[in-house]
Amino acid sequence: MLRLGRVGRSAAGLVAAVGAVTVALSLLANPAAGARADLTPRVDATGSGSATATATATATPDPSASATSSALASAAASPSPTSTSTSSSPSPTATPDATVTAAPTDTPPPAPAPLPLPTELGSWCTTLFPPQRTSIERAKAQALMGGKATVSQGGTYTLTEHPNWKPQAATDTSGDRHVNSLNWALPLLYRGVHKQVPALVDRFRQLMHYWIEDHRGKRSYWVNGSIYGGLRTQTLVCAAQTLNDPVITQAALKDAGIMVARNWATREVASGTNNTDLIRQTGALAAYCWTGDNARRDRAWANLASVARGVVHEDGSDVEGSPGYAVYIENLLTDVEAAAATCGLPADPIPELRGRLYDFVAQAIRPDFRLESLGDTINDSLRGAFGASDARADWVRSAGTTGAPPAPIYSSYAGGYVFGRAGWQPQPGGADTFYSMRFSSSRPATPHAHDDGLGLTLYSRGVEWIGDPGPYRYENSNALRWYMKSRTAHSSVTVSNSGRTKSRGVRALRTQSEWATGGNDTTCLRDATWGAVIVTRCTQYIRSVDAIVVADYIEASRLKGKRNPARVVTQRWQLPPGQSASNTGEVLTLASGDKSLDIVKSGEGGWNARTARKGSSIGWFTEAWGVKAPGAVLSRSVRLPKGQSSSVLVTVFVPRNPGEAVPAVIGPDGVTITRNGLTITTPLPAPG
């Protein structure tokens, strides 16, 4: 159990005593939703005689404004314990308008009155941070009193009585930064108010004051930047409204000014933004709506509308390169709608933008109702955790028991995604194939996108055959994290000894489907990032025989100079945990339980399989946040000549049920596949 030290019900940090002068702030316990009450500091001088002077300090929503009484200045000066002077000289001026002189006395000053305990949470608390289940709230509050703070997914931060806010070994990069978000401390306030426990509220107030005092000077980028500054602004607004605390109020308004400083509203669509900008502007909106600063409130809302349009493409895809962040953005837009309601503002265009996301997220759901792992997404279930009042969201949330999916079974999105499937309601034992492909977003990439251009994933017969490694965890110093974001960790193509320019991107050349008539899906993506080597990947899902053909076209320009090292093209397929492999002639067969996937190839290069092992990043997958699981990588490499050359690598994936034989042959006329007595020959997919 953490000792609260000398800061407790005496409200140290809010009360400063000098000599025989005691300055006490009388704070109101019942918060109002729209505006702050005036704060009335009372100055008492006790000695052989006594005098009382009262001054009213009206708080201002201007972040740069300062309190107008020395009592408020004293409260803002330090969250440290009350200090006492033994000097018998006259006391300093208590307010700008009144001077109180205390006569020498041997009588000790009376103890300051305890701060009133709030009886309810402020309306902005319940809007921005809806209460959790009682058991969760209790457990988190107990952990905090025991010195342990859960900082988002970044680990557990150890709290001393007065934290130093520095990185710790038990937290990752995200956790070290999230200590500045302060929202992790809210269970103390919530539990303390709900159960009327003064020690919990006092510890919460103490932590807020410590952080504020320790960050009065210049702050590093990550203190104010990204999600951390936004969540802290929201937390401080909640705390200031509930506690009616002038120190926290000024800190909230200072942060709100930082959040709203950039004027996104000059553009209808704020391109280059991401989810954190929604959080930052929501915090500013709450601060200025609560304090009645309509001009800054309107600016924050205009920023929010522009940012919201910027993080959701017109087709409903996200800009993060990670479907999990589309889900997160939908949650944030729900929060924005709630903030607009609390503020009394119309919510347009937020509801319409949320609706766009439902179609995209539904398309990114695999037949097992898990979100496809792309970018910083883990393939988790969204059961009970996504959307509301929409048939597509209901279908996702209920795992198909209610609602309805979108109609298309092939779709391409401006966010850089292609999704295709056999159908929305596969029959037992029938085709349930689902696949995805990745190319560059039409808007600037965010840190949650991986270098996964040309990447393909494949799920069929209830098995994830070709997978994406996932995010692992947000630790910038971790080699596995960096590897999982790299091109070599994805089912794509790399070119060695060829200068790379990522900004050239991977572009979609062809995205078409005849799904409405039971026909095939054809997708072609062009990777121009490898200097003088251009790789174009074309895939075709042959719906009638449930197979995927992949053709990687390699166009290499002539190498200049005699001493340049040879260029090598490597094709990789990432195999998730739980699979075995065997060879039968020219066919490599993967097995998982009684299900199989045949892989047939043509072109140069033999298969090389490498399993995950300790000390290497190759072949590992994200099983859960920060938990890795061993998989494998299947690869083949082709050495390019120094002169100009053209070549093609063909790979055919054929899923099978137990006892089923589905021969596939790659010939000069294309690919021939026979399933259930039906033989199909199709030319290789090509861009033109």
Automatic annotation (TrEMBL):
Residues of the Heparinase II/III-like C-terminal domain: 432-596
Record-level GO cellular component terms: periplasmic space
Organism: freshwater metagenome
UniProt keyword Lyase present: yes
Protein name per the record: Unannotated protein
Record field: compositional bias (Low complexity): 45-105
Cellular compartments annotated: Periplasm
Listed GO MF terms: lyase activity
Keyword Lyase: yes
Sorted UniProt keywords: Lyase, Periplasm, Signal
Bias kind Pro residues: ranges: 106-117
Annotated region described as Disordered, given as residue ranges: 41-119
